[in-house]
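Lab channel / #folding
Pinned by the channel admin:
"Please post every new chain as: sequence first, then the structure tokens as a reply. Keep commentary short and put observations after the output so the thread stays searchable."

First post following the new format, from NK:
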Amino acid sequence: MLLFVLTCLLAVFPAISTKSPIFGPEEVNSVEGPGLLNDTKVYTVDLGRTVTINCPFKTENAQKRKSLYKQIGLYPVLVIDSSGYVNPNYTGRIRLDIQGTGQLLFSVVINQLRLSDAGQYLCQAGDDSNSNKKNADLQVLKPEPELVYEDLRGSVTFHCALGPEVANVAKFLCRQSSGENCDVVVNTLGKRAPAFEGRILLNPQDKDGSFSVVITGLRKEDAGRYLCGAHSDGQLQEGSPIQAWQLFVNEESTIPRSPTVVKGVAGGSVAVLCPYNRKESKSIKYWCLWEGAQNGRCPLLVDSEGWVKAQYEGRLSLLEEPGNGTFTVILNQLTSRDAGFYWCLTNGDTLWRTTVEIKIIEGEPNLKVPGNVTAVLGETLKVPCHFPCKFSSYEKYWCKWNNTGCQALPSQDEGPSKAFVNCDENSRLVSLTLNLVTRADEGWYWCGVKQGHFYGETAAVYVAVEERKAAGSRDVSLAKADAAPDEKVLDSGFREIENKAIQDPRLFAEEKAVADTRDQADGSRASVDSGSSEEQGGSSRALVSTLVPLGLVLAVGAVAVGVARARHRKNVDRVSIRSYRTDISMSDFENSREFGANDNMGASSITQETSLGGKEEFVATTESTTETKEPKKAKRSSKEEAEMAYKDFLLQSSTVAAEAQDGPQEA
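Reply from TO:
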């Protein structure tokens, strides 16, 4: 048995020694067959990239057909040749280039390499036994994923560099779900996975074809294998150039929890808490609005250096809390357009990027303030702010807004507010008082609540400052000046009426009756005019046109009654004045004219006395004067006494009217 084994080893040993390079420098013999040469060049290229296979030839084959074959099994398959043929599996991604006549070389370029493109290739110039042949071995490498570890609630950035040959080709980022499927996360054609809404950005690509993708607010389910690539369809296809990452999400995160959704009502406010690395307290903080229509935009709205976008002035502020590791962004005067996703950023650690969604819901703001107010220079302005019961334990404040924050101002607690229904004594009214207002006081003012470093709701009021209107002062003085002449006219008119009553009592009685009737008509007209400002103009004019003729008729009637009464007095034989009755004859009236002057003097003296007294004093003075003067004068007739009593009655009526005109203060 041993002899048989030794015989077999001696038979095999010469064969090994003649064919293996281990035992000597002999050249390996190649197997004869089409497309197989003893000199092979190896090409190693990444998946989706481009390879160029160079094929030399001799001068005698310069004008002959050039071709490239791929060895599939035992037979070569034509891939491309100089006559224009292209294998269907390579359509659109292969070409054959022949250099100038001075160079004995042609090249075959294959783009968007696929895994199936790997294998043995044969270059050939000519078709006979004198043709030049070159063997090539193409190896297509599938990219190994780069391992990436990030914290939960943090962010990750994928930098993708695919080369300038795909600079103008659509780019994408996808995540492999199962097997070879790769679901698009985002691409440059506008597609975006719903799970990444509001927290992903595809930054603009560079000229060399590179781009980056940022994902914030990392979740546990975001872990997995990601591929970036370039293809006209915006998704992974066979032969697409790709890069790969394997993302691991660390659940033991150093990034604190913060609300991912904040809700506010129209007209109200929201306060967003943004964490940052405490080691970078001096870094610049930013807040931007994520725009879903464009995957690569998040325009800044405010930063910690005092910049605020113009349309957000007075309603947006970034407040820092030194050493706290957070900054707060307050946005008030909310509208439906404010709904969306916002990002918290710094110019330091890019891992500390968070996102929050603001939703606008139905409801009323909790804080109640007046609308925009106007203050007058040099005067005092008080602006109230009503806080409901739910904020009884909160710190309440007033501040003046500016680009760098909101400067706190002193305020005054004025007790429970009456602006809320079904609210107990815990509601508060806190007022802001501006003493001696200046131009510098103009601007936006906020009232709000907070607990420690955490800010709550706010309400905004704009205070405009203007000078006291000079036109209003002139109007008041003019009104007073216009009123003075009217008073003088009334005074002089009253004196004229008094004189007429003294000089001609009967004529005065008739004119007074007409005047009273005219006053009644004027009073009716005045009441109609004053009501016209409250009623419609057409109905007022109709009422006036009805009352004026009626007043004229009443005036004519009053004149007629007065004339009739005067004639009646001349014809009566007996006149009764007070309780005293005297028989009067027509001849006595004619003989008593000589006493007229003395009677007028008595009436004047009585008028002077009654101007200082009341109605009762007037009657008493008249009786006493008549009794004291009777013995000194010639005996008067009954007619004279009756006429004297009638004058006294008219003077008494005139005095009572004067007292009614002057009023109790002047008396």
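NK: The chain has a mean pLDDT of 73.
TO: also worth noting, The first strand starts at residue 40 and ends at 46.
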